[in-house]
Design goal:
By secondary structure, the chain is mostly helical. The chain is 75% helix and 0% strand. The protein is built from 16 helices and no strands. Keywords: Membrane, Transmembrane, Transmembrane helix.
Length: 400
């Protein structure tokens, strides 16, 4: 029989909560983040208290046989209502105050609060003296008041899952969604489909008891692992948009840092210094320091830039078949290499074309650095722009 320990989804949900916790603490006033944190905490509570060992322990501590039944049913119902409420708030925005949003919020809060109250009232009216840790739903399926309690929580669970799935489905179909948000919503949708399967298995087993048949395995063997898989998918769905965007931003920063390496090495060789390495510096800080160093050195090279050479190099690059953006980057690369060599040979004012505008020189340093990754292209443009006999001074070797 397929089995998943309830402690596995508990660990996944806890990890999801830990991942979201820094953002929740930092932006505590954001009601949406608080709602996500509360929902994940409630989901953890569901799986902690619905574990058979915890059920038995709670019953012993309270001294009431099957006290865990209304307690677990209440947690499940509160979780379902919170999911529905969060989806309404998430989709419409945390600060939406429209009449439709307020009406939906009031309906969810009042309906699921009423269900929780009814669960406890029915338990007090029922006669459930024999403790059942694993098969309470089917064992008491025909017991007065317990029968109604079990049916009530299953129906409330199913209604919340259907409504939440419909909200997610409609939202996924909307245009203009962030890719990570769309993936997270798809995982949430899959999780709620499994939640519906959990409820269907439980309800089928209960109805079978009403007709005198024994399908208890649906409730005791099939439903628990389905619920565990559902929780894992739901946790992943809530975390993926945040974690995916975070990793995407990290990858973008690191890629930008690597792209600047060729130009950085050229300017390090020209200035005789570089950015000191800091082990604990964040990727964003390293990128900022590298960009600042490149811009500072380029400003010192500005008076050695020959704008006439840059114009000829641009025309030469176009003549060699490069598109305009690529040709512009190659032209600046040629001009920078020429300025480095000129300053190394004889510090002097700008070349015959005059000093360039610093703003133009500093624009697009990423594209210039990418152009330097192809030394052959830079050499070809330079050869076409400058006669071989007029190129003097040491060559600067460009490596990636």
């Amino acid at each position: 029989m397929f089995y998943i320990s309830f402690w596995i989804p508990t660990a996944v949900l806890t990890a999801a909560l830990v991942i979201r916790l820094p953002g929740i603490i930092r932006l505590w006033r954001d009601p949406l983040l608080r709602a996500v944190g509360g929902l994940l905490l409630l989901a953890c509570a569901v799986f902690v208290f619905c574990t058979p060992s915890t059920i038995a322990r709670v019953n012993r501590l309270t001294g009431v046989p099957n006290f865990s039944a209304p307690w677990c049913y209440s947690l499940i119902t509160a979780f379902c209502g919170s999911c529905l409420l969060l989806l309404v708030t998430w989709r419409n925005g945390p600060y939406d105050r429209s009449a439709a949003t307020r009406r939906a919020t009031r309906w969810v809060v009042s309906a699921y609060s009423g269900v929780i109250v009814a669960l406890w009232v029915l338990f007090l009216l029922a006669d459930a003296r024999e403790e059942r840790v694993r098969d309470l739903d089917t064992y008491y399926a025909t017991t007065p008041f317990m029968r109604e309690e079990i049916l009530l929580y299953l129906v409330a669970h199913a209604v919340a899952c259907v409504l939440t799935f419909r909200l997610i489905r409609d939202w996924v179909r909307a245009a203009g969604l962030d890719a990570w948000l769309r993936r997270g919503l798809k995982l949430l949708g899959a999780g709620y489909v499994l939640n519906l399967l959990f409820g269907a298995a439980k309800l089928t087993a209960v109805v079978a008891r009403w007709s005198g048949r024994d399908l208890d395995w649906l409730s005791t063997d099939l439903a628990p692992p389905v619920a565990a898989l559902s929780a894992i998918l739901i946790a992943a769905g809530f975390v993926l948009p945040h974690a995916g965007q975070y990793l995407h931003d990290r990858r973008r920063v690191r890629r930008a840092h690597r792209e600047l390496r060729p130009l950085y090495r050229v300017l390090c060789a020209a200035s005789g210094e570089g950015v000191p390495f800091a082990l604990r510096a964040t990727p964003e800080l390293r990128l900022t320091r590298r960009e600042t160093f490149i811009r500072d050195v380029l400003l010192t090279l500005a008076r050695h830039i020959d704008t006439g050479l840059g114009s000829r190099a641009y025309d030469a690059a176009l003549g060699l078949g490069h598109p305009p953006e690529r040709a512009r980057a190659l032209a600046v690369a040629v001009a920078v290499l020429d300025a480095v060599e000129t300053r190394a040979c004889m510090p002097s004012p700008a070349g015959p074309g005059g000093a360039p505008d610093p703003a133009c020189l500093l624009h697009g340093i990423g594209a210039v650095s990418r152009a330097l990754r192809r030394p052959a292209d830079v050499a070809a443009v330079r050869a076409a722009a400058v006669p071989a006999e007029s190129v003097t001074g040491p060559r600067v070797r460009v490596t990636d």
